[in-house]
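This week, work through this protein record:
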Amino acid sequence: RNGESKTAAFDWQQHKGNYAIHFFGPFGAGSSWLRRTSKGVTLELPDRPPMQASSPEQLLFDAAGWQAPISNLQHWIKGVPAPKTPATQNPEISSEGIAFEQAGWQINAERLKDTDGFVLPGKVTGSDGNTQVTVIIKRWEKR
C-alpha cells in the first residue's frame, strides 16, 4: 500500500537449493521461519499451525499479504540475476555497485566488498514500481 512500510530482520541459511529463513518481527508477532526443502515450502508463525505451499511467494502472500520475490532474492542478495529467469537488463557493474532488471524488478547491489574471495554486497534494493525491498547485510558467513 502507498506509504506503508514493513520491516523485518532475518537470518538466512542456504544449503544448495534448500534454505531456512528466520524472521524476527514481521507478521505482527515474534519470530517466524520460512523453510524450503525438497518437500516444499513451510511457514511457521507463532501460535499458528504451520502453513505449506509450493512457493515461498504464495506463502508470504497468504500469511501477510506481502509480495516478495523470495525465489529470486536468494540470487539477487548476492548481486547476481536468478539463473532460470532472463534478465531484461544485463548487469551493469560500476564503482557504485551492480544494477540489473529481472522479472519486473530493478535490482541494485551496493557496498560491494571482498568476502572470503567473493565480491558480495552490503546492501541490496529492489523495486517493482509498487513495492520496494531493501536488504542490509550485516555479515556474510561461509559454512
